[in-house]
């Protein structure tokens, strides 16, 4: 009998040790399932130098009042030697009523050609809470920041005559009869 009691005692001790070892891991897994996930995308992953690209970071999933992501600042590392940061001024955190910001966006243009790894860091103070990145490739070239226009007046600014366009259209019309 004494031997059976000792075996049960040893088995219970082993179970407690295993449970104690697994419990923090299990708790961490549960916390990660509830944790929002940060994703970063660019409006274009291929552009000419000087073109303004929109970048959007989105927090998906997780609780709306996830404390770790409440009132985070957004730091953008453009991989071209520049950084941008936006810092929020928020009310104190209240569980169940405070909501996290889920969308972070910024525009940026690159002056030189190359491949850039843009990184969005969400920070609380100096600590990085989460980070996401995306790559963009910039080609050297002139990028027009003005949308193309089909207006005939636009042609006047380039030196072409509006009348020469009308004459050519009339000639084509009569010549095809």
Could you please describe the fold and organization of this structure?
This protein has two domains: 1-34; 37-139, Immunoglobulins (Immunoglobulin-like). It is 30% helix and 33% strand. It contains three helices and eight strands; from the N terminus they run H-E-E-E-E-E-E-E-E-H-H. The protein is elongated, with a radius of gyration of 30 Å. The termini are far apart.
Compile the SSE list and pairings.
Blueprint (H helix, E strand, L loop, with lengths): L1 H33 L2 E6 L3 E3 L3 E9 L12 E5 L5 E4 L16 E7 L4 E11 L2 E13 L12 H6 L4 H14 L2
List the defining traits of the structure above.
single chain; about 180 residues; alpha+beta; Immunoglobulin-like; five-stranded mixed sheet; three-stranded antiparallel sheet; 8 strands; elongated; disordered C terminus
Number of contiguous helices = 3
What is the CATH top level name of the largest domain? Mainly Beta
What is the third-level CATH name, the topology of the largest domain?
Answer: Immunoglobulin-like
Contiguous uncertain segments of 5+ residues: 25-31, 144-177
Estimated share of beta-strand residues: 25-35%
CATH architecture of the largest domain: Sandwich
Secondary-structure-based class equals alpha+beta
Q: Which strand order spans the largest sheet, edge to edge or round the barrel? A: 2-8-7-4-5
Q: What number is the mean pLDDT?
A: 77
What is the alpha-carbon Rg in Å? 30 Å
Tally the structural domains: 2
Label the overall shape: elongated
């Amino acid at each position: 009998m004494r031997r059976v009691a000792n075996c049960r005692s040893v088995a219970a001790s082993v179970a407690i040790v295993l449970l104690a070892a697994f419990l923090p891991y299990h708790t961490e897994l549960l916390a990660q399932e509830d944790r929002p996930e940060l994703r970063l995308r660019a409006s274009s992953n291929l552009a000419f130098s000087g073109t303004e690209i929109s970048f959007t970071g989105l927090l998906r999933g997780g609780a709306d009042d996830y404390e770790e992501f409440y009132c985070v600042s957004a730091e953008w590392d453009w991989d071209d030697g520049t950084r941008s940061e936006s810092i929020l001024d928020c009310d104190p955190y209240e569980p169940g009523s405070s909501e996290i910001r889920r969308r972070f966006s910024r525009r940026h243009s690159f002056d030189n050609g190359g491949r850039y790894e843009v990184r969005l860091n969400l920070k609380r103070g100096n600590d990085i809470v989460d980070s996401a990145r995306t790559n963009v490739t910039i080609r050297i070239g002139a990028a027009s920041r003005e949308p193309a226009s089909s207006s005939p007046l636009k042609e006047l600014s380039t030196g072409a005559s509006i009348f020469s366009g009308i004459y050519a259209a009339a000639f084509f019309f009569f010549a095809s009869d």
